[in-house]
Design brief:
Blueprint lengths: L3 E5 H6 L1 H9 L3 E6 L2 E6 L10 H14 L1 E2 L2 E2 H9 L2
Parallel strand pairs: 1-2
Antiparallel strand pairs: 2-3, 4-5
Length: 83
Amino acid sequence: MDRKTTVGAFDAKTHLNSLLKRVSEGETIRITRRGIPIAKLVPADAGEKEQPDQLVREIRELRKSATLGKITIRELINEGRHH
């Protein structure tokens, strides 16, 4: 669910509980003051990063199967080192 809603700062303050419920269900709420965006309510895990060691494992798994036709990425890297 990737819904986005914009509300004014006064409405955000007045209806904070209902906005938090919507955010917990996956919605993103942009808060404005006089039409200018000043804040954003997003689900808690929206900006969290994965652990670096997990990312490295995933990249290594992807590299194993990545090819350009019959040439592997490793072969392209090695070829580039010769020039």
